[in-house]
Model the fold of this input.
Amino acid sequence: MAENNPFPGENNTGHVWDENLRELSNPPPKWWMIALWASLAWFVGYGFLYPMWPIGQEPTQGLLGWSQMDEYNEAVAEVEKMRAPYENKIAGMNAAAILEDSELQEYIQRSAKVLFGDNCAACHGAGGAGNIAFPVLADDNWLYGGQIDTIMQSINNGRAGVMTAHAKILSDEEINTLAQYTLTLSQGKDDPAGKTLFQQKGCIACHGMDAKGMHALGSANLTDGIWRFLPEAGETQLDSAEYTIRHGVNDPNDPQTREAQMPAFKDRLDDSDVKKLAVYVHTLGGGQ
Amino acid sequence: MSDNQRNKHDAAVDELYAEAEQWHINTGEETIHAKRIPGKWRNLKRLAAATWVVFFLGPYLRWGERQAVLFDIPERQFHIFGVTVLPQDFWMLSLTLLFFAILLAVVTTVAGRVYCGFFCFQTVWTDAFTWIEEKLEGNPQKRRKLEKAPWTLDKLRVKAIKHFLWLLISALTGISFVAWFTDVYQLWGDIFTFDLSPVAAGTILLFIAGTYVLAGFLREQACFWLCPYARIQGVMIDRTTAVPTYDFYRGEPRGRAVKGKKKNAEQGDCVDCNQCVAVCPTGVDIRNGQHEGCIMCALCIDACDVVMEKLDRPTGLIRYASLDELEGKEDRPIYKHPRVWVYGTILTLALSGIIYGLLGLDAIQMKVLHERQPLFVAMSDGSIQNKYTIKLLNKMSEDLQIRITVEGPQGLVMKDLTGNEVAGGLAMIEAPHNKVAAKTLTIRVPRASLESESAPILFHATTETQAGEAYATQRESVFIGPR
Done:
């Protein structure tokens, strides 16, 4: 083709169209080629320094020995180093003392929030807001007491409320009267007829003469506006109260009984975590 | 096709290819050796380049105990003389960037690529590098000759000195850059004791490499092929923008000046001396019209004026002129360009925002975060409790004791986290300087005093410095109750 080239001496490829339209083979700019080769060299160097080549079961590990997992572990170690002064302090103090330490307080507000989310919020709701069948932790109403040590005990050993099912012991009318009585109590009023029945039928044994409950037993305070068991959709508070009296709580002889069980956490959490959670729960809004 | 037509056609094609030949694009295979001549624009260029002295010397200024201007990234504080800017004030940076972006636009609309030609570091550093080259290797002809000359000891010596000086400037550039981000005196100490942090060392090395390659070798190629601003600014120019322009109506047809002879009537003023091309740092021929490679440094104006003066012809054959002016159309004054007004308005807004921000930098800044999980809690005594986290940013240079009081629904009670009522309704927060201090408070309100689902609640923060200056700020939040 070269001898037929109409434009000899030019760096064209010999392809000519329409008499004078031809393809040239100009090299790319030098700096562009340098950049290309430099990036290729970078790629090869990078490939030897870092994990890359897929040879065998695992890719090559790279001469620098860098790995993403190491970097992650280093970052975790760094965070733990930042936490260490607080964590060491917490390990050496009891929960009541931690409660008084405002610096540790702010630390716990953040770190225990995560613990609470992982271990507690499934039942007690985020921020201790409670759920239909699970107690609110953000208020000042406590079944077993809101002192820091009691809260720790609850977390460590769990809790299971007990109330006998009264379906076979009381008549429907009596159950209705007692349920009505708890409703009047919660509104701060009194009802002599209900009070008589309440005392006669032995409710006072657990709920107390003043119906304010006993922390030792975990019996509910019936005189405030807070209910342990809330009505389900379509029910009234009266229906819910009647149901509780009729079927009790955790009564093994009544298959329809209310369930109120908190598992023990001492095997799942270490001491420091329990302390942190207790302080966190205490400060949710109603610690005593 | 008649013979006449064919000839005409051939002539047109010839002309086309002649133009293509002339339309040579330098992709770096040819080093531009621009001639340096004195002149008005050269002086202006020197003045403009002198603004970069600030870049080199700025870090050495002190303000009390610390560097006057310090962008302290690890501590997340920007110190600008007496002002400390914290991440919370970062919106001002956006306004600053907006200001400079629009400034670039408005200047380009009025007078073309002023930034490229006079202020850009690429232009300024390249100019400095070629100045060194000229001092060592001589004028452009000598340099071209030296380039082709065989390697002798003399050539090696000259080249070695040149590259050493280039690298020295590059190193100073890198160190000066890093000095804005760390204490400069300590930086020099670290350099001489080989104790630099890897980040500082890496940045300085990158700057050395970048400066050396970009200003020493790539030069105008960076403006041609790398720089996006060059392209952006190109489209901001219109018929009314005054840019260095060759007056082709006056200059064409060009012709050589002949000794002792007056130019004939048909001839234009251009004597085809090629001086405008010789001085061009990007190797552009301005007489071909607007060119993407023209950085509008106006050096060709100087070159042409010198020649015109020598030949007793009026200067300004190449001058700052808009296309409209050149074509004899009405030349709109600057204030009649709508673009200038739009850009100017944005410029003013951004600037007033920055000034407002700098003047209004509160000594203390309060944020009140209302707890959302749960929004409220019903307490056993029938009151409603809400939880708030108060965050206080202390921007003073001393630690402060800040008092918090609350104004809201009747009968409200403020309690701290441990459930104790805050004495006198006044919470104290210790706020270390330049840090955010947080405190969580609970507030109880009797249900009877809540008229609706939410009620406004106002937090006041007051404090005094040791010198007795009082500062106060407030923040509104909501108190939420049941429906």
About this structure: The radius of gyration of chain B is 33 Å. Chain B has two domains: 25-361, 364-480.
